[in-house]
Amino acid sequence: MSQLPKQPAEVSVPTSADVARLAGVSRATVSYVLNNNATVRISDPTRRRVREAALQLGYVPHAAARSLRAGHSRMVLLPSGHIPGGPLHQYFFEELQSGLRRLDYTVVQYGSVGLTADEAATAWAELRPVAVVVPPGITLTPHGTGILTRSGAKAVITLGPDPVPGAHGLVMDQRRVGESAVEHLVARGRRHIGVVMPQEPCRESFSETRLAGARRGAESVRARVCPLPLGYDEESAQRLAARWGELGLDAVFAYNDEYAMLLMRALQDAGVAVPADTAVIGADDSLIGRLLRPRLSTVRMELAMPQPLAETIDRMVQHPGGPPVHHDLLRTSAVHRESS
Q1: What count of other Cβ atoms lies within 10 Å of the Cβ of residue 220?
Q2: Which residues form the HTH lacI-type domain (predicted)?
């Protein structure tokens, strides 16, 4: 007769009462210390004793229980999807998450691939976040905003270029990137400008808005803008460079520095002189672009906020119900180097 394997003994989970006994304080004091409650005065030695006891026991506060007591969570939801990467965006999200952690929020990333806009909003609402920060490239509708606010979200913030009714807007308008690039090329005397459109799906939202900005920059001087589909591989770049002569272009804004470097090498291999025949400009101001020959012109992007973003979100959470606020976060400037 076979025997069932022995089940592991149930692990005893340490409680705040255990921490209180070990530290020689009340459970209320444990709660004040571990929840960073600044409204109650507790001496530094007591705080250290409580934290050391919690560390010794391996005690971790129960987030769900804390949310029930407070009436809301401290969770800020950051949906994730096919978001185009770049140095500025990486820095932005790192600063956002570290800033929110310092303010005692828990940042949770949630995959939204495969969901419609309103399905995604419903899935986010099920987690009962206190705030939702929707990155560019992920769609939020007015209906989705309503779902989130009715579920208890005190702040719904979008980072895309277009406002959403009912949501706060912290805009990173990619049109500025394309406009700055084309204005630079026009100032250098170029009038027939190609704009690289990456074929990778995750870059579509950025490439379309950068193209719109490029057209806006060309409009006042009647410059010609020609979209150029390009995959991120050498073969695609070589095919585009091989027909460069028939395109009649004297400049190209290559979406970002990576695509600019890829295309510039293919153009040089095809006998197109840079910048004599074709001026080239990228975006992101990457270090490697400064090391090329010729050195790569680029669009530098910077964040412009009157205060750290995490503090802005915290203020929205602390004072809900007001009219949506909108800030333009992105500042751009063209950097002239040898390639243009």
Answers
A1: 9
A2: 14-70
